[in-house]
Amino acid sequence: MSALRRYIDKIKPNVEEGGKFHLFKSTFEAFETFLFVPNTVTKSGTHIRDAMDMKRTMFLVVIAMIPALLFGIWNTGYHHFLALGIDASFWEMIWYGFIRVFPIIVVSYVVGLGTEFVFAQIRGHEVAEGFLVSGMLIPLVMPVDVPLWMVALATVFAVIIGKEVFGGVGMNILNPALTARAFLFFAYPSQMSGDAVWIGGLRRGMETVDGFSGATILGQAAQNNSEFVNGIGEAYSSWNMFLGNIPGSIGETSTLAILLGAFILIATGVGSWKIIFSVFAGGAVMGLLLNTFAVNEFMEVPFWEHLLLGGFAFGAVFMATDPVSATQSERGKWIYGFLIGFLAILIRVLNPAYPEGVMLAILLMNVFAPLIDHYVVENNIRKRLKRAKVQA
Amino acid sequence: MTDKEPLFSAKNMKLLREPLGASNPITVQVLGICSALAITVKLEPSIVLAISVLVVMAVSNVVISLMRKIIPPRIRIIVQLVVIATMVILVDEVLQAYAYDVSKQLSVFVGLIITNCIIMGRLEAFALANKPWPAFLDGVGNAFGYGMILILVAFFRELLGSGTLLDIQIIPKAIYEMGYVNNGLMVLPPMALIVVGIFIWIQRSRNKDLIEQK
Q1: Residue B2: which pLDDT band, with cuts at 50, 70 and 90?
Q2: Which of residues 47-106 of B touch A (CB under 8 A)?
Q3: Gap between the Cα atoms of A219 and A199, Å rounded
Q4: Which of A255, A324, B111, B147 has the fewest CB atoms within 10 Å of its CB?
């Protein structure tokens, strides 16, 4: 450790003011603070500091995503061999999933951090840690068969248009990872939706067992099927949807793994339980309403299954709770979360052209978050003013 | 009319040049956005609309400037509208006669030139108070500034969204075979907004005068 410290101290003068490589100051600082806790002290005012700086916060979120990632890797392999009709062992499934998922993660991190570093150099600010989370979220919301160059393009778009134009980490209006997904969804619909993209290898014309279909459950529901089946025609139960051995984006299928992540986020205080809870509540209310007034098969899908399907749980736990793009006020979080769940199911069921209503609902409420905060604050001011007058 | 000004004096050239950059109607004044978003999917209609706006703007600026002393101030907006509407109808008729396909693609947007805020804005702000020649230059300058952005946006949107320019295939087949796919978002209106936004961003980072003081 001390050898590393000495080495960093040795190259430090080069990037200080007037040094040879001053241009790369922010790059250097990013690596230095990654390795060591910075020794800068606050110069003015009274502050309370603890060890939870931004890097540690972001890292906890990445840890919380690991169950979903591991499950996604297994699930990729599982569906690949299911389509091939081969009885593969657990480790063969893991290995296949790994060689398909790992490149997407690498592309997302390399391209995203590259863009971040370039911007940090041009604008002379520090490299912020925000991308540590986005870089993991982006692969988890991609279908496994997405071409890598599309991941790269979407990542660049998300970092520049989703974040840097607004002033960088902490200033963005929209969730960057969802911006990346929305970009691909509208730009390349045939690579991002449909029946063929969710199973590793299917889009490249792999030989499958007869009659294999890669349709997701939501895809089947949009066709007004009442019985949901897997690729070879076996029926799915709600339990399958909860465990997550169903086709879908890499990290979104397993509600169980996502709830593990939610537990980590809530226990460490990084994610707001109010948002997570109210998203599920909003989804359940809308689901119940649709069940009550059901006129087609899709509207009759039981409301609890909606909470297990598609990206609902993933969006609620990892996307809606993004502290930058969510509401800041505590009462606002209830409203914000509830409307996300409510709108997500509404879009999902009533507009089958967009089976992934969760993405659109979260992006929409991201835009409305400042407005919700404004009215919560205004309301509070009004209430307190009234109280003050009565006592005077 | 005391001292004769040369036709292309520095002041007059400024009228022509400013709207291309520092007071561009779209990227700086953010006027005429609706048509910039709606018809820039392809290059051809954008060029035609740019030319149409150029004609309407140049002529109506001159006409209003000639009449500036006899227009009663209280009904000036109506007079301006009548002049613009006459020009737009003429342009529309010419387009329908000689460029029917494009005219159909542009559909209502030719008619909507009447409501293009840039034209009304220049008539109010400039032609009503200036002589015909500067008014003409002002109209041409602003129409160029508007058309330039329109054509640039359409260039990127058609190239990336359809792989063509003026309906001629530009991106070679070989690249498609390697897995390249046209960007469907480029064809949708939101992307026009983002492309215009990127232009504004580039322009402001080069010209610091445009950045608002906090």
Answers
A1: very low
A2: none
A3: 14
A4: B111
Q: What are the residue ranges of helices labelled H in A193-302?
A: 217-222, 238-243, 255-268, 273-292, 297-300
**ipTM for the complex shown:** 0.79
- Over residues A213-272, the pLDDT tens digits come to 777 777 777 776 667 777 666 777 778 888 888 888 888 888 899 999 999 989 888 888
Whether A25 and A102 map to the same domain: the answer is no
Contact A165 B179 (CB under 8 A): no
Please report the residues numbered 136 through 155 in chain A whose beta carbons come closer than 8 angstroms to any beta carbon of chain B: 147, 149-150
Check residue A128 and report its DSSP letter.
P
Q: Residue A355: inside a domain, yes or no?
A: yes
Q: Take residue A59 and report the two structure tokens written for it.
A: 């890292």
Verify that A58 and A31 share a domain, yes or no: no
**pLDDT tens digit string along A15-30?**
776 666 666 666 677 6
- The pTM for the full model equals 0.82
Q: Half-sphere exposure (CA, 13 Å, Cβ side) for B177?
A: 3
Give chain A positions within 8 Å (CB) of B194.
161
Provide the number of structural domains found in chain A: 2
Interface test with A, best of B176, B181, B191, B199 (most A CBs within 10 A): B181
